[in-house]
Amino acid sequence: MPFFPIFINLEKYRILIAGGGHVACRKAQQLAEYTGNITAVSPVFTGDFQKLEDRITLKRRSFSYDDLLNADLVIAATDDGELNAGIYRRCHESGIPVNVVDCPENCDFYFPALVKRDDLVIGISSSGKAPGVSRAVRRILDDRLPRHAGELLAEIGNLRKKILAEGKKPADNQEYNALIEHFAEETEGVFK
Hints:
Elements (H helix, E strand, L loop, with lengths): L14 E4 L3 H11 L5 E5 L4 H4 L6 E4 L12 E4 L4 H14 L3 E3 L12 E5 L2 E5 L6 H14 L4 H17 L8 H14 L5
Parallel strand pairs: 1-2, 1-4, 2-3, 4-5
Antiparallel strand pairs: 6-7
């Protein structure tokens, strides 16, 4: 059964990453664009983690199950399959959503392939069946989506906010509808 795509505000979530290798770092890099409330635990971190040190907390030590006590969302990305499975079990018992990298059957959520233009975010998923397909679709969309799509979205969003502040409906506003149409024309080539 496919996973339901959902967009959430991660600011209120305490995210724990168990592991310090390349896969853990990739997850940390993705998440750091959406929140600074991330802690990674590992005795050793890859060099790329050092670039994130000003945005996330790095704890240079072995993982402890007590680390889960302060977590709302967990990524198990150690190189120890038994430990990852243990993290999954503990999270499940505690009701903490968990993603065990490279083990789809032990995931409550998946990381989508993302195309991002400022606040415009497109998530692509194969529901864990073939992540390479999601990456291929992401590359296609990323190549075709205009670089200024986020700026267009910001302009539309600002107008919408102004219209709502006046107590009116954006759908009834000609300028708003014209900007939506302009956005559609600018991005139409993405899906052809």
